[in-house]
Design a protein that fits this description.
The chain is of the alpha/beta class and about 375 residues long. The protein has 14 helices and 11 strands. The longest helix has about 35 residues, at about 345-380.
Length: about 375
């Protein structure tokens, strides 16, 4: 697989979009615009060797189009790895809608977005992500069948957040077993950064086990609501990364693990739901290894949501989805052991497994296509 290069930051002067796509071998990028609804969106399809590209739609007030493009390219690439390492027959894709979800999101906008998704003929299947909910997916469903995460009342799986959080929880427990010799989180000081749907569900799992949970979010009302309902402690300090913690759980946006933050962190484990946590996979993966911090690869332990919506494509069953998400525990354990044995970072260990599966299945598909063409020649 020709995408082992470190994803590079895109700027306004980075050159053509196709040039940026070629860095990590993206297959397709679609720019969507509709003046009537105010829709401005980008759909990125990274890889479809294993199957159609499935990935959520994120709505965010990006500072510029280059920032949005950078995000969607990184996120779609991560979805390829997430699907591959989870054993799902899916490729990697993602979409971003540029704008403040609290100000411009509407039924017409989401339905127009659904038409763009439908125009891809099933190559991309969408779902919810930051700034998007099940009601929005209901609007998208009105224009295309290539959508998951629709309300349970419509035969869908509903909000995938509980399953995503459960997978992160399993990955965190496996990391604790590796680091401490026991997977018990009772009494462990866990810092959860980002109290969205996934973060709040994760806090609930942790509190029930007896962990000492501290929470932080840029939205104060979310913090207060979560603290009141769970008993978690709101962080009042000046710097999140200097907080007293055993486990750091980044559950907001990505790239919080950089040279500055890693230097400050005093935790033993990092296991969270955020995508693309490492600002630079090579540099910061190595920094964590050198510092002795156990990092559970994000695209591995946050795959519960993808597992959940994938099951929707084959007749949804919540118990089956939770059972499959529970397998993240064993997979995380295996990745951590491989990384330790081979003296490599956990991101490299996880990516090696994902890329191996994609390469192997790719050979099977290419062989089948070659055989099919040869048979067609004989029939002429």
């Amino acid at each position: 697989m020709a995408n082992t290069l470190e994803p590079k930051e895109i700027t306004q002067s980075s050159g053509s979009v196709i040039k940026q796509m070629s860095i990590n071998n993206h297959e397709q990028v679609v720019f969507c615009n509709d003046n009537e609804t105010g829709l401005k969106a980008i759909i990125a399809i990274h890889n479809t060797i294993l199957g159609p590209a499935l990935g959520g739609t994120r709505m965010w007030a990006y500072n510029n189009e280059a920032e949005a493009l950078n995000d969607v390219l990184r996120l779609s690439r991560g979805m390829t790895y997430k699907a591959a390492i989870s054993g799902l027959n899916l490729g990697g894709g993602k979409a971003v809608i540029i704008g403040d979800s609290k100000k411009i999101k509407s039924e017409p906008l989401m339905r127009r977005f659904g038409k763009f998704v439908n125009s891809l003929g099933g190559k991309y299947i969408t779902a919810e992500d930051v700034g998007i909910g099940t009601k929005d997916m209901e609007y998208v469903k009105m224009e295309t069948n290539h959508v998951t995460g629709i309300p349970e009342s419509m035969g869908g799986s509903g909000d995938p957040s509980p399953v995503t959080a459960f997978g992160v929880y399993m990955g965190m427990k496996a990391s604790a077993k590796f680091a401490y010799g026991s997977d018990s989180l009772n009494g462990k000081k866990v810092f959860v950064q980002g109290i969205g749907h996934v973060g709040e569900n994760l806090v609930n799992y942790l509190i029930k086990e007896g962990a000492k949970v501290t929470i932080f979010d840029i939205h104060e009302e979310k913090l207060i609501e979560c603290a009141n309902s769970t008993g978690a402690t709101i962080f009042k300090g000046a710097d999140v990364y200097e907080a007293d913690m055993d486990i750091y759980a980044p559950c907001a946006l990505g790239a919080t693990l950089n040279s500055d933050s890693i230097a400050k962190l005093k935790c033993s484990i990092i296991a969270g739901a955020a995508n693309n946590q490492l600002e630079d996979e090579i540099v910061h993966g190595k920094m964590l290894l050198d510092k002795g911090i156990v990092w559970a690869p994000d695209f591995l332990i946050n795959a519960g949501g993808l597992i959940n919506v994938y099951s929707e494509l084959h007749g949804y069953n919540r118990e089956a989805a939770m059972s499959n998400a529970q397998k993240i525990y064993d997979l995380t354990s295996s990745i951590l052991k491989v990384a330790q044995t081979e003296s490599i970072t956990t991101i490299v260990a996880a990516k090696n497994i994902a890329e191996k599966r994609i390469a192997e299945i790719g050979k099977v598909k290419l062989s089948f296509q070659f055989l099919k063409k040869e048979l067609q020649k004989l029939e002429r």
